[in-house]
Amino acid sequence: MFEEMPERDMYSWNLMVRGYVRNGNLSAARVLFEDMPERDVVSWNTMLSGYALNGHVDEAKELFDRMPQKNSISWNGLLAAYVQNGRVDEARVVFESREEDWEVVSWNCLMGGYLKKMRLAEARDLFDRMVERDVVSWNTMISGYARNGDMPEAESLFQRCPNRDVFTWTSMVSGYVQNDMVHEAGKVFYEMPEKNVVSWNSMIAGHVRCKRMDLARELFDSMPCPNVSSWNTIISGYMQAGDIAQARCFFDRMPFRDSVSWSAMIAGYAQTGYGEEALHLFIGMNRDGVTLNKSIVTCVLSTCADIGIMELGKQVHGCLVKSGYDTGTYAGNALVAMYCKCGSIDEAALVFESIREKDIVSWNTMIAGYARHGFGNNALEVFQSMTIDGCRPDDATMVAVLSACGHSGLLDTGRKYFDAMYHDYGVIASPRHYTCMIDLLGRAGRLDEALNLVKNMPFEPDAATWGALLGASRVYGNTKLGEKAAGIIFQMEPDNSGMYILLSNLYAASGRWNDVREMRLKMRHTGVKKLPGYSWVEVKNKVHIFSAGDSCHPDKDRIYAYLEDMDLRMKQDGYVSSTKSVLHDVDEEEKEHMLKYHSERLAVAFAILTIPAEVPIRVMKNLRVCQDCHTAIKHMSKLIGRLIILRDSNRFHHFKGGSCSCGDYW
């Protein structure tokens, strides 16, 4: 229509420029602006405000300098552009060039800019120099002091404020709450002549911070019109208090949910051990078309990683690809961790390579992933790339590097990095680094050296350090050292059932059944309970859980028949049952029968029967894999010609062609 106009006046030109600016098409607006036969101050200000609002401060300044005429709107526009983009010092230069002509709104703007930068002294100096102040001036300064924890000064200004509005009162309530002065916040709140939704929400948040959910609930119930933030605060409060049922009740009652509502519930479920509920909720959120945020991505991917549900993790990955976040550092790191923990180290490596800007977490996650999977050389290659890239290793990096050396038996390399940690990378050795080194020496059978290192540590060894020695003692049958390590661990962590089991294994391997029984009695008398072992596998988006001798699975007959047949084939292949893994003094035949139906073997058998031959089998176990099952699964991988990946409580085992990535040490 504009193009067809026979005559165009100043108003029509300005209208078109303003239209382009409002739609964010600044380049088209600028072309039209430059084509104008003549311009008035409105034309210039429209273009200037467009640049300012879109963060193009330098273009705004260039235009401002060209303006033949400037009015208060022009000056305010440039000042606001600098302030809104954090360039407060340049804003001050503009402000001081004509201080006497500024309106109150401009003083408030610069004062707010100082406060955003935590420059309270300069903001207060500006406030004190103001000839005329409005309620926004007072509110800006009061809220600035409150946000920065200076409540006495905020209170002093509050008392001096000639005209308080609801925002003045709310600034005080919020300030007291943020500074854990909830009693004072309550006094101000109940004195308020008028309250808005922010006032109510601040007070509710105060009660939540004090863990007084009874008062928070009472206030919420009396609130005239709670908004989504009110609901989110009360849900988060119940989640933090561990009252998941009440949180879910409020969530289900919400008239409207935003991404924060879903995040609060998903995070609450995930952090309290209800991983499956968290994932079910995520699926519901996805159906509702809610946009992913950092909190949801982290919770869902970490829950997928913990449970070992890779298919849902892949769906989240797909959502991130669609939204364009997949190559971002934050999302990329979460994806790498998820794929590592779900047993797909190749997928993890692909995502890692796609991260545009890798941070220390990216590098550490990939190194630790390779380490836990037993691919030490790959881990060290990533570490070398990290140093070449200029990223300085930290404490966690060196733990991952030493762990990689340990899981792969790279003794000399591990020693080299341990000795060079401080000199080359500035990392001071911590108990975790010493534990890795002791574990590495133990794996190599250097038990005396490991014990000497424990004795010469610059700090007291902790239970993890002694645990590394106990583990090595079990592998190499050093009962004396194992008993010494276990005795110290029992003093430090009397409820650590894993250490009782390790020592019992050591006794059983030596045929010391009386000592095994004594361990069992000791556990009973001290109230230590052995964590029941179970394994699980994901098939067609469903998780199947197995316990030893499981008789509840609908496919149990097929599974048991398959294992019977496989047992014959394995024996023909040279498999001999490792009956010393059984902590019961029964005859050999009974021991063999008990071992045959351990949870990990049932899960592997079910996976073989149900997962297509070209797909790797991934099984998870909550405890360490037993020695006999480890041997059996090696034979199974050889006989069926498939890759079987098993994640136990300590590491990953990649079984292929009759061997394991752990080198038979775990």
| Spatial sequence of strands, sheet with the most strands | 2-1-3-4-5-6
**Percent in strands:** under 5%
Number of helices: 36
Mean pLDDT: 87
Would you report the number of β strands?
6
CA-CA gap between termini: 77 Å
Question: What share of the residues lie within helices?
Answer: 55-70%
List the helices and strands and how they pair.
Layout: H1 10-22, H2 26-35, H3 41-53, H4 57-66, H5 72-84, H6 88-96, H7 104-116, H8 120-129, H9 135-147, H10 151-160, H11 166-178, H12 182-191, H13 197-209, H14 213-222, H15 228-240, H16 244-253, H17 259-271, H18 275-287, H19 294-307, H20 310-323, H21 329-341, H22 345-354, H23 360-373, H24 376-388, H25 395-408, H26 411-425, H27 431-443, H28 447-455, H29 463-476, H30 479-492, H31 497-509, H32 513-526, E1 534-539, E2 542-547, H33 556-572, H34 588-596, H35 599-610, E3 617-621, H36 627-640, E4 644-647, E5 652-656, E6 659-660
Parallel strand pairs: 3-4
Antiparallel strand pairs: 1-2, 1-3, 4-5, 5-6
Helix pairs in contact: 1-2, 1-3, 2-3, 3-4, 3-5, 4-5, 5-6, 5-7, 6-7, 7-8, 7-9, 8-9, 9-10, 9-11, 10-11, 11-12, 11-13, 12-13, 13-14, 13-15, 14-15, 15-16, 15-17, 16-17, 17-18, 17-19, 18-19, 19-20, 19-21, 20-21, 21-22, 21-23, 22-23, 23-24, 23-25, 24-25, 25-26, 25-27, 26-27, 27-28, ...
